[in-house]
Design brief:
about 80 residues; two-stranded antiparallel sheet; about 20% strand; 3 helices
Length: about 80
């Protein structure tokens, strides 16, 4: 089910992804309160992509460290031997 943010107007592929695009502290009485939407540039830098269904993290089924390894220009480290 798609979710549209009324604050920034962007559409997200799921309610969970909508919630993940909101960052900052929830407590409005806490110093430094700054709940806000991530910008499209911030989402792209965090490996999100825009699809026909809306914004979604890239390959959410893969662990974060695995995505970084796949994008690396260096070959994977070989075992000592």
């Amino acid at each position: 089910m798609k979710s549209r943010c009324r604050a920034c107007g962007l559409t997200f592929s799921t309610l969970h992804n909508f919630e993940r695009h909101r960052i900052g502290k929830y407590d409005i009485t806490a110093p430094g309160y700054g709940r806000r939407c991530r910008t499209p540039d911030e989402m792209l830098a965090a490996d999100w992509r825009k699809t026909a269904r809306g914004w979604t993290p890239e390959a959410p089924w893969k662990p974060q460290h695995q995505r970084k390894v796949e994008r690396s220009a260096e070959p994977p480290m070989q075992g000592r031997g």
